[in-house]
Design goal:
The structure holds two protein chains of two kinds. By secondary structure, chain A is an all-alpha fold. Chain A has two domains: about 25-85, no CATH class; about 90-255, MetI-like fold (Orthogonal Bundle). Helices cover about 75% and strands about 0% of the residues of chain A. Chain A has 15 helices and no strands. Chain B is mainly α. Chain B has one domain (about 60-295): Orthogonal Bundle (MetI-like fold). Chain B has a two-stranded antiparallel ribbon with strand order 1-2. Chain B is globular. Classes of the chains: A mainly alpha, B mainly alpha. Chains A and B meet through helix 2, helix 5, helix 6, helix 7 and helix 8 of A and helix 1, helix 2, helix 4, helix 5 and helix 6 of B.
Chain lengths: ~300, ~290
């Protein structure tokens, strides 16, 4: 994907000015012919980027500017009033904290028990491992709606409903199938000889796990964690079902209820909230886009 | 040497946590839900055994049939569009932009990682009609038209949902399919060109047949995702206007948690699961037959 061929150097002997002019004209003609395509790509990029820019600009506008200025106008000042309002009155900070509290512990548990399971399924040899892998695989296809009601009943009866536990427990279970499956695929790609050599050197199973399997799949583990992070962070269904108290809302549920908290035309804080959500993700994407793209596409082809 | 790998105690120790959580929180609830489908009532009022009544009710319930029909329509249309547009983009990447523009791929991929709720709120503001016009309606009125209540009418609301999902997923499918296209050996394309195939013929006769496996998995992935659509619709239209854009997932959610009908709610979830299974098997078999024929 990243291999680029260097253009062949022009032959030194025929470096006359006439030839250069001709080739320059030819290349100009060629780029002219490619112009419609370039415009098409430009429009496409604009369609993807513009709505987000509009939200960002809107997040700095005052209520009056929304009503009286056209949508393409720039905000008159770059003050952070809307952001302050979103965090202080809107509780955006609480929502983000709740999301962090629910997502990161889940992520940690998913990865720790998922890596161990993938190792047991792919490297170790025991009866029934094929069936267990298949069972995990089947979980990828079943819609979450199939597990909501029994879990809701259990969480309600055990009194867990008013905490973050329902989210953490459900996230771990929902994240496991894809994690185990993807990690098993990566483990399979480690040459078996590596482990066999380790046994000759006297390593036991746990040593092999810690000193060979985990370091060799470190990149893959990170990628899978990244994929799961997006799934959990962006989740609405589970959070909407199991969060019954307003101050336990995750960012997605909180943002969904944001509109109701302000007047119908007080868009500023809402725009600020969307902006935080969009550009927070953007920051992550800016640094990790290669890994994110690879992870998400791998997670789908195999899933 | 093999005996080290056949350490049953170690295997058990490593698989147990994941297997335990997965069994308790996924497998058991699934069968529990299947059990619910034969009951009427909920956990607070108590249950009554009704046999298969919930299933017969499903097929006689106009709201359920509407939700089913909406789900199928949405899933088929969006799958065709997102895999189609994604494939178009992938062809553009491979044959037009070449490897010069990996940043174009990266930019167009970005929307898929955005939180659905944020995107939906953004779109609803973008297409807003009341109390003030959003950008789209402002442009329409500036061009002399009158502002349209996009999300207020059922047919336009449907298209806004499709448009938004396309906006989100197009770049993702492009990268997915791009990976399949770059795997086509250059010599195959070259020999096709030498034989006189060009442009569309080359695409139709060589590129599409060779990328059929990736297309197949994209279609299956897409249909499985779109049949389960929830976030997009809850955040954009909340099933409205009326119940015009209510898919099975949302209907199940309402039935279960707003009306407390656990038995019927589970039945709707069960029908959705069967639908996913059926469609996947169907596509898999029909596509496979095509491959062997072609």
């Amino acid at each position: 994907m990243t291999t680029t061929t260097t253009p062949s150097a022009p032959t030194a002997s025929s470096a006359s000015t006439a030839a250069q002019a001709r080739s320059r004209r030819a290349s100009r003609l060629k780029s002219l012919r490619r112009l419609p395509g370039h415009i098409g790509v430009g429009i496409l990029l604009l369609l993807v980027i513009y709505p987000m820019v509009w939200i960002l600009l809107g997040s700095f506008k005052s209520k009056d500017e929304f009503l009286s200025e056209p949508f393409w106008s720039l905000p008159s000042s770059w003050n952070l009033d809307n952001y302050v309002s979103a965090f202080v009155d809107g509780g955006l900070g609480t929502y983000i904290r709740n999301s962090v509290v629910a997502v990161f512990p889940s992520l940690l548990i998913i990865i720790v028990i998922g890596v161990a399971a993938a190792f047991a399924l792919e490297i170790l040899v025991w009866k029934g491992r094929g069936a267990v892998l298949l069972m995990f695989l089947a979980g990828i296809m079943v819609p979450a709606q199939m597990i909501l009601l029994p879990l809701f009943t259990v969480y309600f009866k055990t009194g867990l409903s008013n905490s973050m536990w329902p989210l953490v427990i459900t996230y771990v279970a929902i994240g496991l199938p894809l994690t185990v499956f993807m990690l098993a695929t990566y483990m399979r790609s480690i040459p078996r000889e590596v482990f066999e050599a380790a046994t000759i050197d006297g390593a036991n199973i746990f040593r092999m796990f810690w000193s060979i399997a985990v370091p060799l799949t470190r990149n893959a583990i990170f990628t899978v964690a990244l994929v799961q992070f997006f799934f959990l962070w962006n989740d609405l269904l589970i959070a909407l079902t199991f969060v019954t108290k307003a101050d336990l809302r995750t960012i997605q549920v909180g943002l969904l209820n944001f509109t109701g908290q302000y007047g119908a035309v007080d868009y500023g804080p809402l725009f600020a909230g969307i902006s935080v959500s969009v550009f927070g993700t953007f920051l992550l994407y800016l640094f990790l886009n290669k890994k994110i793209m690879a992870g998400l596409t791998a997670g789908s082809v195999k899933g | 040497m093999d005996s080290v790998f056949k350490d049953r105690r170690a295997a058990l120790l490593m698989i147990a946590p994941a297997l335990l959580v997965y069994t308790l929180v996924m497998i058991v609830p699934i069968f529990w839900s299947i059990g619910y489908t034969t009951l009427d009532g909920n956990a607070i009022t108590g249950f009554e055994f009704v046999g298969l009544d919930n299933y017969t009710h499903f097929f006689q319930d106009p709201a359920a049939i509407d939700a089913l029909w909406f789900t199928v329509r949405y899933a088929v249309l969006l799958t065709v569009l997102q895999v189609g547009c994604g494939y178009g983009l992938a062809l553009l990447y491979v044959f037009y932009l070449r490897h010069k523009a990996s940043w174009v791929r990266t930019v167009l991929f970005f929307p898929v990682v955005l939180p659905t709720v944020a995107v939906a709120l953004m779109f609803s503001k973008f297409f807003q009609a009341a109390p003030t016009d959003g950008p789209v309606n402002t442009i329409i009125t500036a061009l002399g038209g009158s502002s349209v209540d996009w999300l207020g009418a059922s047919s336009s609301a449907f298209w806004i949902i499709i448009l938004m999902d396309l906006w989100r997923s197009m770049g993702f499918y492009a990268v997915l399919l791009y990976a399949g296209l770059v795997d086509i050996p250059a010599e195959v394309l070259e020999s096709g060109r030498i034989d006189g195939a060009s442009g569309l013929t080359l695409v139709r006769r060589i590129v599409i047949p060779l990328s059929l496996p990736v297309l197949l998995s994209s279609v299956i992935f897409s249909i499985n995702g779109t049949l389960k659509v929830f976030d997009t619709i809850v955040a954009l239209t909340n099933g409205g206007p009326g119940s015009a854009t209510t898919p099975l997932t949302l209907y199940m959610f309402r039935t279960s948690f707003a009306y407390g009908e656990y038995g019927y709610g589970s039945t709707i979830a069960m029908m959705l699961t069967l639908l996913c299974l059926l469609v996947t098997v169907f596509i898999f078999r029909s596509m496979r037959r095509d491959v062997t024929k072609g």
